[in-house]
Amino acid sequence: MTPALLMEAMVNGVFLGLVYALVSVGLSLTLGVLGIVNMAHSAFVMLGSFFALELLRGWGIPPVLAALVAAPVFFGAGAAVHRLLLRRTASTSEAMGLLVLFGLLLVLENGSILMWTTDTRVLPWQPAQAVLSVGGFRVALGRLVAAGLALGMIGSLDLLLRRTLLGKVVRAVGQNPDAATVLGVDVARISMVVVGAGTATAAMGGVALALMFPFAPQEHLRWLAWAFLVVVVGGLGDVRSTLLAGLLVGQLEALAGVLLPFQYVYAVLYAFLALTLIFRGRGLQSAQERVL
User: Fold this and answer.
1) What is the pTM of this model?
2) Burial of 26 (C-beta count, 10 Å sphere; 0-12/13-18/19+)
3) Per-domain boundaries in the chain
4) For 229-278, how does the pLDDT look when each residue is reduced to its tens digit (9 = 90+)?
């Protein structure tokens, strides 16, 4: 392997990692703050990709603007999911909540197949096809734009959670919801905001992924596995840890892609997931505190 090829792989790994972090941060947030395993998370990622496709084909709106439009639209969708489904199952067992969200995943997947069929699509955005040559290695402009979008969204979310009153309230609910209730916090409303934000970031992650990969309604489960991998590595509810974990996973995938035959890349990633679960003891439940 030449140094230029290795550098190209590492740069692509950074781009992949940033997008993987954006795809995963909403799952980390809902799980870390509310303890909700959102099984429908990847379906909203997939819908974000198709949302960008329809805005581009129908209105000529470029993907970056489509991501900004997707934020309030899918925030509202997430808030509706919380109000109509999650609040109704809050007093039941966790298994019931998982079943409801899994049912929602199936509804969204099959509805998407009815609307868009099972054909694989790509975003017909011409600038994404351009390739830049920097320092002897090539960078796809679509990946650069996707990485920039992901970094901007993750940075904005981190600032919101750390520097605003709303962020402090969300952190308080994540650390001790009962104490937050005693202090006058409307935990139900904050929970709705968290689910809405998690859904919005999932959709924006779908827009970013569409700039890098082809997409189809039935392929979203891959991104659910990747999101869980990033969450397991990074921990629950911490945006910065999710970012670092996404970068680690992106580097691992990119380097495995140039060092190993293609058919072994996914095996390496799933093995990494298995080892992470083993060495973190109880896996997702190994995080004893939820710290934002």
Assistant:
1) 0.91
2) buried
3) 3-116+132-286
4) 899 888 777 898 899 999 999 999 988 888 888 778 888 888 887 787 77
